[in-house]
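Session log. Operator J.P. requested a structure for one protein chain; no other inputs attached. Running the standard single-chain path with token output.
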Amino acid sequence: MHSPVYLDHNATTPADPLVVEAMLPYLTARFGNPSSRHEYGRTARQAIDEARRQVAAALGAHPTEVVFTSGGSEANNLLIKGAAACLRPGLIAISAIEHPCVLRPAEQLARRGWTVEQIAVDALGRVEVGAFQEIIARKPKIVSVMMANNETGVVQDVEWLAGAARRSGAWFHTDAVQAVGKIAVDFRRLNAAGVHAMTLSAHKIGGPKGAAALILDKRVDLEPLIAGGGHERGLRSGTENVAAIVGFGVACELAVQRRVEASRKLLELRSRIETGLRSLGAVLFGQGAERLPNTVFFAFPEIDGETLVGQLDRAGYAVASGAACSSANPEPSHVLRAMGVPAELARGAVRASLGPESRPGDVDGLLAAVWRTVARLKGLAAVAV
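Structure written below.
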């Protein structure tokens, strides 16, 4: 069976062969519990320590600032709920385009006495400076702004935003899950500017699912979500997923080593897609803003996005709809709504996200499939009218 061309790397990435190779011993002979005192346990603990060092080095952090979790969602929840539990209820400010794993924890805090404000973005998906300054003047206790959006790819000036928030005394968090490996990310520089915590995830950078990290300034007090044996500096109890953590460390090293060359290639392919889509009459979202080099978010007026995604899948191209995370939710993307995109157009949103294995032929094939599919769908719509 012929595999479809994979163009959904913002959802997940294939594991790099070097990552898989590094993981295999910890799925077989090196199976020890890293909390055990014997040689099997010590071997597993050493592997985790090395992975922690690799993740820290790749992100410009210190190993003691790396808290391993099961995923980006857990890391985001740990920061938001964990910090809130150590503070008196006050104001938490999050951008209007955050991933649901930031939006939903904030909503939970609102039911516990916190005031939650969403920071407005402009038509390109960038945090509005005036809106941000207005909220910061109200002295929020927690601020969370993602580094790069998973749908549009738009990159925020987190360093500047954190500097502005720092003067208010807020704990500043950024979800950098989509940014790592695609743009330069240096926690030490961001920390100096005022970023106290940062989230990243292995499966977005050629690593395995089931491993992620919260990079955390040790001055921030957190109450753990999971209490138990006191793993991860007491912040995340539970026996560690050794194999996945090992793979995470290798994936971080490889992503940083390859980033510059990979970004150059991805930009060329992104430009190729966007030129072709414009010639077909597509609307491209976020153009004019700094964006991830691999992400294209587009729509065709009067063409339903879910329908287009399904047709392209049958044509052999795996892309994503811009709809909400739950496929049962018919609402258009909250990110596009925040950008002021009309609901009718937002319902047509489709995302293509490139990866290291993407080739010019993949792009050309996708464009041809889009042309055929859109022409057919428009023809069917015309007949229906």
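Operator note: The chain has a mean pLDDT of 95.
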